[in-house]
Amino acid sequence: MGESTVSLTLTGPTIPQLQPHLFLGLNNTIKGNATFITEDDVLYPAGGVLVIHNYLERTQRYIKLPRHLNTVSMLVVSPNKNVVAVVQEGEKPSILLYDLKTLKRKKILNLPYESPVRNFASVAFTSDNKYVVAITGSPDWMMLFFLWEKGKIETSTKANSPPANTGAIVQVAPNLTDNTVVSLVGPGIFRLLAVSDMVWRQYGFQKADTMPFSTVCWLTPERVVAGTRDGRLIFVEFGDLRALYRALEATVIDVRIKDESAGAGQIVAGQDLLQEGSKGEMSTEFEVRCLTAFSRGFCYTCTSGIVILFEKESSACYRKRNVFRIVAKDVRDCSSKEMNEIHTLSISPNEEKLLCTTKRMQIYYVQLWGQDIAQCQEINFELIGEGLHHGPITGVSVCAWKQEAMTCGWLDRTVCVWDYVKETVLLTKVYQEDVYCVTLHPTGLYAVLGFSDKLRFLLVLIDDLHVIREFSIRCCNEAQFSRSGHMFAAMNVYNIHIYSSITFQLIYTLKGHNNKVSALFWLPNDLTLWSCGQDGAIYEWSMFDGRRVNDVFTKDCKYNDLTITCENLLGFCAGSDGILKEISEGQTAKEVDIRQTQLDCILLSRSDQMMFVAGDNGSVLSVRFPWVHPPEYQNFQMHNHRILKMKLTYDDKMLITTSTDGTMCLWNVTAVEGKAVSMDPDFTFSNEILISQDDLQDKIRAIKDQTLRIKQLDTEHAYQTRQMETAHKDEVEELQSGYLTTIEQLKEKNQDMETEHTIEINKINRQIADTKLENEQEVEKLESSYNAKLIVEYDKYSKLEGLFESTQQKCNKNYEDLLESKRLALEEISTNYEKKLDEKRMQIKKMLEAMEKNDYEHEVIKLQMEKDADKEIVELNNKYEDYLNTERDLNIRLRGETGVMKKKILTAHKDIEELKYQVFTSQNELSQLRSVIEKMEKKRLQLHREIAIKDNSVRDKENRILDVKSTNDLLEKYRTVLSAKITELQDTLEPSDKKIESLKDVIARLESEMEDMQEMNAVLKSQGKELQDILDSRDRILRDEIAFGKDICSLLKQLAVDMGAASRLIQHPAKLRDEMKKLYQRYNRVVDLELGRGHDKEADLEFDRQIKYLQTAAGNMKSLIYKASDNEDYETNVVLIKSNMSLINEVDNLRVELAVSRQEARDLDCLLGLNEAAMPPSEALATLKAAITDHSRIHKECQASLEQYTKKMNLLKQEINSYEVAIAGAIYSSSSSSSDEDEQDEME
Predict the structure, then answer these.
(1) Which of 358, 501, 963, 1016 has its CA 20 to 30 A from that of 61?
(2) Per the database entry, which stretches of residues form a coiled coil (predicted)?
(3) Which of 223, 181, 185 is nearest to 206 (CA)?
């Protein structure tokens, strides 16, 4: 990509070559500075090139712009994404067209006339990519219609319709499908133009005096939308104004809805916004910019950092779908509101992504569609690629151990750590103070940064820069670590401080410069430091004692950079005079002029065999080294502004350059055979990073949490799959049943269709016969009538054809006569002129003596004669051209009339052909109906085949079901095997089984004597249980009733007290009535509350027990699943777990049965009182009888106590009833007395 320039001699193969590997940056002053070319390729300007960047594959292609082209104002890409137009402003503005596939220039479009215009206001491609519409700037404001492939202008017109409106044009928008229609907008200007016969004419809506338009685009071929600087959207369809909306407030836009709130005669939605611009001063805070349309809607920006998207719901309705926002911080003195002002919007080719740019040197994008996006109203933009610097990149540094580089920006106050091989940003940190310089330790683990208040020594962590030490050095513009990293040098005003990187002690203070120090250079042995400054001085410092060893002074030259060979034999410096200087032994040994006005940077490779110099306008020069005379070098151009820093990587394979416009370029150094430094074969770049202990623990903790979460998700997934399997089985059964029903329905429908089909065929046959007769009669009538008409029209046509031939002959004769007369007149004029010239020549020969006096008069007469002759020629040309134009118009008119007659004749022929065609179509319809009948037959057969196929599929599914059943049988066999294993496990419970067997032996001995007792025992057991349950329930009821009785007694006592207090109000019936109401409400509520406090404690206990059991079971299952998931054969473990779960359920059931049997045995022991291992039957019978007698006695006592309690309860109920009667009587007496008093008052 570089442009080679050789001085005096040709470049040899020994000069290293530079190839741009990655170019980062963005020119934010150009309109349309970012556009999608494909779904992954983005075109944007940076430096002196156009970059086509594929962010998915991380590749770049470049279009090299001419070196003089530093005034690009606009980029426009054609609709088919094949051509880009680069618009240049200046004394002679032009449009350069480049092919985006071949990356070569195709055409240059210039103004075809002399004009003071310096720029193009707007440029656009038409929809078919053949034409370029350009609007010139002030003062012309012309619209030029270029056929760009031929480079010529087809049509042109005034863009701003003078003298009615002489304002500026902001944008031109060609129609989406019609090349002959465009829309122009500007402050107070809205024009729809259409071209016919090479003339542009305006049509449609024009009343835009109060509308400061700022942008426009076509939504459909008939509908155009325009935005204003005061935040209004105007919709025009078919040339008529349809609707006006507030851009920031609109949620639904319907261009077909009329404004019902408007007055009579207003038919436009939002017509009250028409005159808004004329009411007061215009505010540009909500200016509508960058209107962009696509097939599913349109989008625009109307305030800082916000893009509003409207989605198309119908042909005339759009609904607000999302608001996309840019979130970014302030930059130095500019607020985020200014920096986030959007300048460009671009939609990807498949309309999935939206791209935008702002004043920042950064490109943003957002996904337009998706489920998550539809649910969110506001969505933030994301960066495309890596975060770039905004403004000059003042510092660059590389390290030896890692493939990393550190950069700093002065304007954005940002420090970035880059991986220049993977082309990624590893770390970004923004500071509140200005950052002036940066230098990396050779290990890449430490860094020194110069700030406006202090110099800081930092530790480079994985995600932060941690300050270790601060030094009181302000505004340090240059700092540099030594080659081994144990020292670093920093500039403090005009002095240089040398610090230890280990103890941070000040070792030396180097004094001598009288102006700013611009560069520092350490030798490989770290024993010597070189420095140069703006005072024209170069010093060599010894690190043994901090003294100056050598110095070189140059007047009228400010040194910007220097480099020294590894052996400290030669030094080379670059300065403001544009001359390379070689320094040896404290003197300037050689000077080389490489034809540059200023040199900013100079570099030598570690092998001392490659030299790179930064020259004018961002050029990088690869100079042949050692120098030869004349010098040989090659120029590589990517930047178009001054280069600030230039660094070579440790292996001499990559060059990094940064510029004042915020661009950074990574160059691959090629053609370096034998010139690059020889690296140690065992050397490898380090990948280690530093991380704090707290961060490491947080990371480990997060990993553990995520692993647990993964295990939980696995269990949830297994559970969901089981549920899905069961659900799918049910669905298959439902589908099978439904399928059988549909087959029967289809059979019935088929029979119905066959009957209907036979009926329709009969009807169609009848209709065909009727239509045949009617068509034949109509054809005969039309043939007779049209034959007569054709004869008449043919006579007229022959007459008109004769007239046309005669007029054409006359016109040709007149045209030839005019040409002959013109030729004769020109010959006469030329002969006269030659005669006059001969006479004048004779006079000149005769009057040679008076030639000086008459020369001037002769020249004047000569010029006047030439002008007169030219005027006469022009007048004759105009006269005959006008006559020729009139004759042509007559000829065109006659041709039009003949054309009309031809069309009439053709229409008559067409009518005849149409009738013939109708007959033909009727025949075709007959054949089609027959084919339809055949198709229906085929369909019927096809349906039978489909039914047979579906029957086969049903059989296949039944076979599958049988296979599933067979697999279930196999699983049953596995279950039996596992049950055998369970029996083996039960054998391990021998101690408990032996006790059970001993008890069984005792019971077997007693069975012969207790056969009758067992029946009695079972009956008594059931009766005892029933009586015990009744007793327990009665006990509970008794306790509740006792507590309720106590509460009632206390309430009655309190009620008696309150009644006594209320009895004092007997003389005041109204108060007594109110008091009684309060008492009734109080005690009625208390009683209800007391009655509703019953609580079943046993149910709660049982519920808690079941919850605990289920929790323990779930915990056991989780632990089993976690253990199984750790194994390698996870799927087999899942099958085993499922089988184990079924077996565990069976084991639990067996355990429950065992516990029940044991409990029954214990109950028998308790009933019989068998505490010993063996007991004679007589003692067992005695204990059984004693138990029965005790039970009956207890039952009788409980019944007696219950009867006593019921008597007490009845007495309490009687007392309560008496109290209620007394209360009711008191209330009734009080109400009657109050009514009597009211009657007496009314009588009075």
Answers:
(1) 358
(2) 743-781, 812-893, 996-1023, 1195-1222
(3) 185
Spatial distance between the Cα atoms of 67 and 640, rounded to a whole number of angstroms: 8
What is the pairing mode between strands 317-325 and 378-380?
parallel
Number of residues that this document lists for the chain: 1244
Q: Which of 836-840, 1019-1023, 1228-1232 has maximum average pLDDT?
A: 836-840
Which residues have C-beta within 8 Å of that of residue 714, sequence separation ≥ 6? 1121, 1125
Q: What is the radius of gyration, based on Cα positions, of the chain?
A: 53
If you average pLDDT over residues 482-493, what whole number do you get? 92
Q: Regarding the domain delimited by 388-511, which CATH topology (the fold level of the hierarchy) does it fall under? A: Methylamine Dehydrogenase; Chain H (2.130.10)
Q: For residue 139, is the peptide bond before it cis, meaning its omega torsion is within 30 degrees of 0?
A: yes
How far is it, in rounded angstroms, from Cα 73 to Cα 84?
13
CA neighbours closer than 13 Å in the CB half-sphere of residue 1004: 6
* Beta pairing partners, 183: 173, 192
For residues 403 and 405, give the distance between their C-alpha atoms in angstroms, rounded to a whole number.
7
The whole-angstrom separation of Cα 1168 and Cα 792 is: 136
Q: Using an 8 Å Cβ cutoff, are 30 and 640 in contact?
A: no
Instruction: Give the model confidence (pLDDT) of 223-261 as tens digits.
Output: 999 999 988 999 999 888 889 999 988 899 988 765 444
H or E stretch covering 273: none
How far apart are the C-alpha atoms of 660 and 642, rounded to whole Å? 6
Other residues' Cβ atoms within 10 Å of the Cβ of residue 86: 24
Q: Which CATH class is domain 211-257+282-385?
A: mainly beta
Distance CA 928, CA 921 (A): 10
Contacts of 1140 (CB under 8 A, 6+ apart): 1120
CATH homologous superfamily of 512-676: YVTN repeat-like/Quinoprotein amine dehydrogenase (2.130.10.10)
Tokens of 366: 């957002």
| Edge-to-edge strand list for the sheet holding 465-471 | 435-440, 446-451, 455-460, 465-471
Q: Report H helices in 479-544.
A: none
Q: Mean pLDDT, the chain, as a whole number?
A: 80
pLDDT for position 990:
67
Task: For residue 192, give the nearest of 159, 170, 144, 219 by alpha carbon.
Answer: 159
Give the integer Cα–Cα distance in Å for 270 and 512: 75
pLDDT at 1106: 60
User: Which residues pair with residue 354 across a beta bridge?
Assistant: 347, 366
Which three-class secondary structure state does DSSP give residue 1079?
Answer: helix
Contact indicator for 14, 622 with CB cutoff of 8 Å: no
Q: Check residues 150 and 330 and name the one with the higher pLDDT.
A: 150
pLDDT given at position 11: 39
**CA 74 remoteness from chain centre:** 26
Distance CA(499)–CA(489), nearest Å, equals 6
Compute φ and ψ for 397, nearest 5 degrees: -150, 145
d(CA 213, CA 171): 9
Residues 558, 536: contact at Cβ < 8 Å?
Answer: yes
Which residue type occupies 307? V
- 126-142 per-position pLDDT tens digit: 999 999 999 999 888 89
- Give phi and psi for 1226, each to the nearest 5: -65, -40
Against a cut of 0.70, is the pTM above it?
no
Whether the pLDDT of residue 467 is over 70: the answer is yes
Nearest to 1219 by CA among 1036, 1068, 1080, 1024: 1080
SS3 593: strand
Query: Judging by DSSP bridges, how do beta strands 35-36 and 83-88 pair with one another?
Result: unpaired
| Contact yes or no for 245/219 (Cβ under 8 A) | no
Question: Quick one: tokens of 1034?
Answer: 């009665």
pLDDT for residue 1002: 66
- Amino acid (one-letter) located at 78: S
CATH topology of domain 30-157: Methylamine Dehydrogenase; Chain H (2.130.10)
Q: Which of 50-64, 317-331, 867-881 has the highest mean pLDDT?
A: 50-64
**Residues 636, 570 contacting (CB under 8 angstroms):** no
